[in-house]
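Can you make up a protein sequence with its C-alpha cells?

===
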Amino acid sequence: MRRSPASPRDVALLALVVLAVALPLAGAAGHGIDHLAADPQVSADGVVRMESVFATEDGFVVLYRDDGDGERVVASRPFGASARDVFDVPVRIPADAWTDLPANATLRAALHGDDGDGTFDPATDPPLASFGGAADDSFVVRRGGTAYVGASSGASVQRSADGTVEVRSVHMPEQGYLVLRNSSGGAPAEVVGATALDAGGHANVSVTLDDAFFPARPANATFSLWALAYADDGDGTFDGDDRPVRVGEEPVGTRFGVQKVLPGRTPTPTPDEGSIVVTDSPTDPPSTPTTTATAPTDTPTAAPPATRSPSPTATPPPGTGGAGPGFAPAAALVALAAIALLALGRS
C-alpha cells in the first residue's frame, strides 16, 4: 500500500522525540567524543606529554613517526576509559627510538582501542574515531632541556572575574617567562600578560592579564589566549629581546579558552581542588584514580566538569565552526529543536 507523505507536523514531532532521547544521553555522557591533543615540546629524557586525552573505552595512546616509508610505531602506553578529560598524559619513548629521532621530529599521537589482551598490536587494536576521522594529533618534539606548557582544559573553558588566569603546567628549560598572547585568527598576537619563572616544573601558574586588555572584553565573552614559554636574554626583564622557546619553527606553548564572568561567579576549579590525579608512570598500566588535594606533578590530571569551550590547542575540525569537541553536535540538536518547534507552531 502506498503511504501518504509525512506532514510537517509529523516530521516536527519525530524530531522532538529524537531530541528527547538524545539530549539526556548527551548530558549523561559529557562530551562523549574520543579526542587527543598534543603540542610542540622539548624533552630531556624521551618522555612526551599529551595535553589532554579523553577515551570512551580502554585502549592505548600510540605515537607514530613517518620516516618516508610509511608510519611506524615508536611508543605506546595503556589508557583507560575516562569519565573526564585527562591532562598532561606522559608517554615514554624507548631509548633506542628516542635516539633515532631527527633533531625536530614530527610525531602523530593516536588513540587505539584494545582487543581485550591488554597489549598493543596495530593489527588488532583499532584506531578510535573523532568527528568522522581518527582521534589523533600531530606535534613536533626535539631533545633538550624539558620545555612544555599545558593550559588547555580539553572541552572546557577557564573562567575569570578579575583578569587572573591559571596555566596548569609549565616546564622551563632555563630561567624565562610564561607569556600570554591574544589569539587572532588562531595565531599568537599581542602580548597580554607575562610572569617570570625559574628553570624546572611549575603547577597552576597565575598570570594577570593587562589592564588594557581584560576590561575591554565584554561580560560573559569567551576569548582565546596562547600560553608560550620564553627564554630570558639575561637582563631579568621581559621585553622584545626575549625569544620564545622553539621546536624548529614552532613555539613551545598551547592555546586555551577564557570566559570573562561577573564578580562573584564561581571560578573554574583547579586541579588542587579535589580533582582526580592519576599516579601511574609513563611505562606502567594506569592505576586506579584516587582523589587528592595536592598540586599536580608530572602525572596526568582529570578535569572537573566545566563549561564547554572553543578548541584550545589546534585548528578546529571541519564542521565545528571554531568550537571545540561537543559543540557541533550540541548546536545541531539545538537548531533541530528550534526548527521542530517552529514547524509545530505553523502547523
